[in-house]
Each structure stands twice: as structure tokens, then as C-alpha cells.
Amino acid sequence: MHHPRHAYVHVPFCRHRCGYCDFTLVAGRDDLIERYLAALAIELARVSEPLEIATLYLGGGTPSHLGPGGLRKLFALLRERLVPAAGAEVTVEANPLDVTGDFVAVCRDLGITRVSLGGQSLDAATLRSLDRDHVPDDVRRAVSLLLEAGLVASLDLMTAAPGQTLVGVEADLAAAVALGVQHVSVYCLTWERGTAFESARRRGDLVPAEESLEQAMFETAIDRLEAAGFEHYEVSNFARPGFRCRHNEAYWDCRPWEAFGPGAARFDGRTRTTNHRSTTTWIRKTLAGEDATGDVDAMTDEQAARERIVVGLRRGDGLDREAFRVQTGFPLETLAGAAVERWVAAGLAVDDGRHVRLTRGGLLVSDGLWADVLT
Questions:
Q1: Could you tell me if residue 49 is left (phi over 0), alpha (psi between -120 and 50 degrees) or otherwise beta?
Q2: Residues 125-139: pLDDT tens digits?
Q3: Of 7, 33, 20, nearest to 279 (Cα)?
Q4: Hey, which of 57, 232, 245, 346 has its CA 20 to 30 A from 8?
């Protein structure tokens, strides 16, 4: 087994939990940061010798919430076990309000190359409806600081927000392009169980967008961003040439990766091991020297191959039959031949004999296709 060359670190702290969020995080619990760092140091010791890594991704929560000093402490810990190779991609997720001159200077100092900004929208009413604590000018200011410092800026945008219109989404896309960001991720709002938004939906206080409007918003995102020179390289992700997220590409290529922190999931090519989702439980168990694993998903060779079909078809490049056979030991025909034929007949996929790719129509309904493959 090759050593993983990719690592994810989960930073579970936020100033405020947005109404749609069901991620592993704690809001307003900065008193836990020191204990989190102490627990992280213990978990990192699982890596017996320093790993040279090609990509490092700090997700959350909001890693930027640690502030410049907290980020320095975090990277001092990480450096002992995770050593970025020359030219490594090092990404930090950030809230626009946290992006200051000091933050950007520390990013440069620490070797961070890419900042993923949770902008969500550049429309004041949409930001309010999404329960965000920033305004459009905060996003603009953050992006200009990042780009001036020579960092790669990736912007998250959300569609199907309460009350959002198609015209509003078009304006957001145009604004994102005008800002000069190199990468855009477009996510449709999902109504997750246990969130404030889902409770409000059940009470009738919030109404989800119609499915036809959701689809129109997604198609508009593809049209506008492709017209502006972005590659639509994965269902939700768009990049200027040369600026794809290499860390996420490692996930989609099913390469092994390491992961640390509450709720973080590591993968060795067959088994996905997820840490306990509760931040306080993960901290308590790790500091006590107990196992803080929450869930272990061990796949058979065939299950791993089937998962590879799904992640492969989410990508613009699609699946290469020969590469798939070499990587998994299974011919694509054996696992998904009939499904691919059905999709092609329905106009949801194209198959040139070597590559299978989903069409735009297929991408629009892709989540409904996977049952054909994963059963």
C-alpha cells in the first residue's frame, strides 16, 4: 500500500452556525480550541513518520476562525507529521469576514496556496435568507486581498436559497466572474434533517425552490461559467484552466488520503474510517487515549469498484474503460454495462467505446442514477 499523499484536517469552529448547516462543528465554543489542538497533536502521532504530501486541505467549520495566531499554532503541529512537497496545494476554507491583511500575510508565511471562500452569494437579501453573517462587500474585499497576495481564490456559491430567483443566480455568477476568482463551486441548498432550515420548512416558514427552478439555476451556472472560460470538471465544480482543486481530484480518483479531527474520514483504498462526529466527544476520547473512531466502512473489491464508477461519472472527464479495468480488476461492462446502455439510450450518457461520460441531462439527474450501479 502506498503512503497517502493527501491529507484533510477538520477544524470544527465557527462564529455562528448557519440555518442550513449540518456539518461537524461547534459555534461560540472558542474555549475548546486549546484542547482541540492538544487532541489533534495526539491524533497526528498516529502517523509514525512524516508524510510527504501533495495536497493538504483544512476544512470545517471555519479554519479561518482560528485567526492568524491560531493558524500558526495549528501549522506548527501539522508540520511535524505532514510535510508539503515542492509545489503542494495547501487549501484553507475561510469566512469572508476573517480575511484581513494579517490573515493573508499569515497564509503566505505558512505556505497556504489556496483559500476556499464561503461566500454563498453576492446579493444582500440572499445572504440574509441563508443566515450568513457577512454582506456582499465583505466577499469582494476578501477576494481582492487574496488575489493581490498571489493566492488562488475559490468561491462557493449557493443556489435554490429561500426566495432566490434565476435572475439573482445570474447576477451572482456574473459577479463571481468579474471578481477574477480562479475556481467556483456551485451547490444547491439541501434541507438536512436536524437543521434550523428543515424545522422552518416543516412549519411552513420556509419554502424550498421548485425542482424546475433548481434545474434552471444549475444549467445557468454551467452556461455562464463555461462562457467565461471555466471548465465544468465535476458536477458542482468549475475551474479556470490549471486551477482545478487537486485535493478533491484525489478523492474523486479514489486515491488513499489521511484525515484528522472530529468527523474527519480517512481512506486507504478499501476502508473509510470516520472519526466521532461530536467535537467534544472526539476531544475527550482522544485526550484520554481512547479510540475516537465513529464509523468504519470496509468495502469489498467489487464495492470499491462500484464506488469508483460513481465518483468517476461525477467528473467532466468521465470514466476511461481501460484505466478502470487496470485500477479495479473489473471490466466496466461486468458491473455497469446494462446501466450504461440504458443511460445512453435515454440521452443521459455518451459512450465512445473508450470513455463513458454523462451528458448535461445526465449530470442534472446524476444523484438518481447511482442506484443502478451501487446495488
A1: beta
A2: 999 999 999 999 999
A3: 33
A4: 232
- C-alpha span between 314 and 361 (Å, rounded): 12
| Domain span holding position 369 | 314-374
Whether residue 152 sits in one domain with residue 34? yes
Do 10 and 103 fall within a single domain? yes
Task: Indicate the number of domains in the chain.
Answer: 2
Q: What cell numbers appear for 47 in the block?
A: 502517523
Is residue 57 in some structural domain? Answer: yes
Residue 184 pairs in a beta bridge with: 155, 238
pTM: 0.94
Question: What is the C-alpha to C-alpha distance for residues 84 and 80, in angstroms, rounded to an integer?
Answer: 11
pLDDT in tens, 303-323: 999 999 999 999 999 999 999
The CATH number linked to 98 is 3.20.20.70
Supply the DSSP string of 39-85, one letter for each residue. HHHHHHTTSSSPEEEEEEEEEES-GGGGHHHHHHHHHHHHHTTEEEE
Kindly tell me the sign of the dihedral angle through the C-alpha atoms of 226, 312, 272, 47: negative
